[in-house]
Amino acid sequence: MFKTFKSVLAVLLAFAMLAAACGGDDDGGGDNGVASGGDVDITSILEADLGDCGDAPTGEAIKVGMAMDFSDVVGFVDIPGSKLVPFVAEKINCQGGINGSPVEVRVAEVGGDAALAAQDLLDWGAHFLIGPPFADFALPILQTTGGDVPMFVAASTEPTLADASINSYLVTFDDFGMSEAAAQWAYDEGIRRAIVFTEGAGIPYTGVNPDAFAAEFTRLGGEVVSTQTYVWAGDTDFSSQVNEIAQISDNTEVVFSAALGFQVTALRGQLEGQNLDGLTYIGTDALDATGIQVEANNEGIAHTPHTSISPGDRIDTLLADYEAAKGEALESRGFMGLYVDSMFLGIQGMLDCGCTDGPGIGEAVQAIEGFKGLTGEITYAGTNGIPPKDVPINRIVDGEDVLVATIEG
Question: Model pTM?
Fold first, then answer.
């Protein structure tokens, strides 16, 4: 999710070497911490009534560390995510824990020192971590763990943050997955011409997503007729770009970017001012995160959310339960299931190995296949830490954000 910083590959390779060196001495066997066997019973957990709990679990605690970024850039997902995970842990403990083991959650704000926050969580005894989506914070955390403790970068789509050899996992599709899906959807809609907005080729998120869209759209047989640059999260005046587009557009193109909701609607208004009212707009998870559902002039705009939430489904019900219990509605609804799935995946790894040592948990996580989480089916077996998940395509139709297609992962 969103823009990460450069120069990650060399660092990740170094971590991989460190993890390989450190992991060889541990056989990953159980250490009498958590009873092995079984699957996380998500249905039972979600149905737990906090007003009618059974006896408190008394086994050795499963410790979940959350290293979260509360800044203006990421706080809109990490802050609500760090509230929902402890709430789900309350539900787990309410119905007896995991094989008699309570689940404890500790949240550490990465602030100006992500490595220190990670070390605090490790000193506390965290069995696995849920980490922030940006590389500038995620990489120092990985350096601190040395690859020994699994980390799930819950809200990230950055492919370079996934590396099973250093116990770093995405919980969702990556930039390539969602942008290639967007291209497939546009082509399936009969669109053969595209206008792409980018911050520059290869730039994490704001360049990688447009690169992936353009490559797939072209491969399918479409044509990118215009590539425009802009400043992500900054530009709202697109007059120069619009003037160029007006010279070449035939009013049938799809407009793709990784821009934020208010930027896409601003661009649309300016293009419509040039009588370009037949264009189709599709964007990335940034639109879901920044409220395209409530933006003015949003009708018909499509995006690639991580989950397509419908009234009464598991995520909708969980978020309603949280609001009823805590008196507040959580924002960034489409991302919340990723944080909860991160916890469930770490616990599932512990159940599969019957252990509490990081390398053993990581080895078990790497073998997870067909895990049915809140956000879809998740498999790590045979991957490098990026699950091949299906990509939902949502579109604003008659003012409602509805699922219009699912592109197979």
Answer: 0.90
